[in-house]
Amino acid sequence: MAGSEGPNASSPTQQLPKKYDTTIFLSGPTQSDLQRNAELEKFLIDSGLYESTDEAEKRVEVLGRIDRIVKDWVKQLTSQRGYTDQMVEDANAVIFTFGSYCLGVHGPGADIDTLCVGPSYVNREEDFFIILHDMLAEMEEVTELQPVPDAHVPVMKFKLRGISIDLLYASVSLLVVPEDLDISHESVLFDVDEQTVRSLNGCRVADQILKLVPNVEHFRTTLRCLKFWAKRRGVYSNVTGFLGGVNWAILVARICQLYPNAIPSMLVSRFFRVYTQWRWPNPVTLCSIEENELGFPTWDPRKNPRDRYHHMPIITPAYPCMNSSYNVSISTLRVMTEQFHHGNRICEEIELNKTQWSALFEPYLFFETYKNYLQVDIVAADSDDLLAWKGWVESRFRQLTLKIERDTNGMLQCHPYPKEYVDTSKPCPHCAFFMGLQRKEGVRGQEGQQFDIRGTVDEFRQEINMYMFWKPGMDIYVCHVRRKQLPPFVFPDGYKRPRPLRHASQQDERNDEDAVGSGSGSAERHIKRKIDPKTEDVRPIKRVKQTTISPPRTESVSPSKNVGRSVGTPDISFSNGNRLECRATGDADKNSDVRLPVRQLESEKDSVGDMRVVEDVMHESITINECTSMLVSEFPRVRNEVKPSQEGCAVKPSEQLEKPLSWNELVVPCAVSFSESKETLA
To answer: Polar residues bias: where (predicted)?
Structure first.
């Protein structure tokens, strides 16, 4: 088995101007920095981010087993296709690792990203995804086998002896693959397709990152820390529109280049300091973007118009240089920018000895941040079907964000949350994802302005139902829920939602509805209330009784069998100025008042100064209208009908109302209308 080795961690930082280009600070750590660094490393160890020796040895054994499997697979194919005995003997495939395992920042239970490089006569479509898949399916040690052939980078996911594996395949232009194949050399890209290039570049990028950082061990500790932070704050997910492992690795590597003599505690603090001031969409690069005679397209907004619409370009260092963060949308960039500012504030307090490292890693209170959410429920007939169905829906979840941005001209901001939740009370396998929704900050609503995203959701569901491996029982439900209506399975054990305040006098005792009255008082909520106390008045919310409209069904319906249904009137309307009127559903007392918070980003005092942190501007600024036009061209509207709910597994239908709904109620995607009531929401 071949691997990817990084440079020696103690390699000296020589030839900095040539190798690392611009630097900001060359001085080493102070005594205070060393003390904070020791505290940070202790915190990471106490948090269980390092695997045990036994688990590390098990990973090596599993990788060896995969290597033997793919070698036997290639020899078997070579023999079946009539090659000579010598060719059969020489037939070979090699396993490489990339991702967190290759970079040395994986933790307990993490998956291993692997790449199988095979000869030219072994293809991906049939040999890898059918023949090798069937071989793996027959092995008792292999579980949760899930092929994803239509992914941007085709992958086979499975567990081998309990270790999660993501296996890619690349067929190179060689009849015999040598055991010591060097895939970092560009000759390996000769006469291969773009999917193969993307598969190979995972390993090639990891190798380059390790070569381009001044100190590998400092880079690893910092990256391990930032990945943990990103997961705690809900911004670690490439598929959802945030950043994945390679994105965070490149961002951290750039900070290591800017501060080549800094230790991890300093690098973490500088990470937030730099990226709170980064002027996106200026790209983050570790080296110059170079062309090659092989002719593969590289990221260049001057030549490629589509590259101009990337919101947060993070460029891979290996040829062909690509934007690794093309999934980022306007909404997810906004969320990450907020989190960078939050992290910067905490790090400033840590440097002033006002708080501990644990404050930086407090979990993000997603369900206390927004008033309105979309709930996406996924069900299937059994756990194996749910695994495949969930993977497909999750891979398309980002499209829902883009479609909402497109159909509302960016006025409706989305926050997809990458964590999945399970309702164990349902009679069939289930999981759910959530998306926070709010009106764009700083924009006043016009009288009569309406947002109706039911058609947007219908389009999303119709595209989801085009899944080529769809089976009876696979279904998806999308509905709108307010914060007070969130299902109990999204809250940790022991967490109790606050009781609604019954009187206006009690309402005055809180800042706004976003400060949920659990009394938890996290550091983040305290900072936001202290810095940004402004709120907007909202007229009392009125409620009516719930009624259902979705007809039950006794068996699952194929996506090809569409069932018609009624469509309600537009659902969201804005009143004059900032005063919003809302009608809701359910029982409540009178005279309750809700305030709509104004969530703003605070301007940061700290500045990098005159140092050139941001690379040269390579393309023009992008307006919301330009982005919307691009999205419209990328995602044409498809108005198809949606199948009804599956009996036994159906999610609770949305309310039936009869009049346009104001902002707080948002839209109910399941074809409903809204009406007034004289009752008042508590």
So the answer is: 546-563
Is 150 one of the annotated active-site residues of the chain? no
**What is the DSSP code string of 446-468?**
PBT-B---HHHHHHHHHHHTT-T
Catalytic pick from 127, 166, 385, 593?
Answer: 166
* Predicted confidence (pLDDT) at residue 23 exceeds the cutoff of 90: no
Residue 457 near residue 400 (C-beta atoms within 8 A): yes
How confident is the model over 582-597, as pLDDT tens digits? Answer: 333 333 333 333 232 3
Catalytic residue among 20, 101, 169, 236: 236
Annotated active-site residue 326? The verdict is no
- pLDDT of 497 reads 55
Whether the CB-CB separation of 134 and 158 falls below 8 Å is answered with no
Known catalytic residue at 495: no
- DSSP bridge partners of 650: none
d(CA 166, CA 154): 10
Mean pLDDT, to the nearest integer, of 312-316? Answer: 97
Q: From the candidates 71, 75, 157, 227, give the one annotated as an active-site residue.
A: 227
Q: Is residue 500 over pLDDT 70?
A: no
- Residue 52 annotated in active site: no
What's the sign of the alpha-carbon dihedral 142, 145, 147, 153?
A: negative
124 vs 599: which has the higher pLDDT:
124
Give the range among 311-320, 400-409, 607-616 with minimum mean pLDDT.
Answer: 607-616
- For the chain, the average pLDDT equals 76
Map out the domains of the chain with their CATH numbers. 16-275 (3.30.460.10), 367-495+511-603+635-680 (3.30.70.590)
> What is the per-residue pLDDT for 469?
86
Token readout for 410 is: 């960016």
Catalytic residue among 90, 111, 384, 423: 111
Catalytic one of 33, 113, 514, 571? 113
Cα-to-chain-centroid distance, residue 326: 12
Task: Supply φ then ψ for residue 347, to 5 degrees.
Answer: -65, -35
- Identify the DSSP state of 413: E
pTM for the full predicted model = 0.73
Q: Judge whether 111 counts as a catalytic residue.
A: yes
C-alpha distance from residue 96 to each of 64, 179, 180, 417, 485 (Å): 11, 11, 11, 32, 48
For the chain, the distance separating the N- and C-terminal CA atoms, rounded to the nearest angstrom, is: 64
Catalytic, 4? Answer no
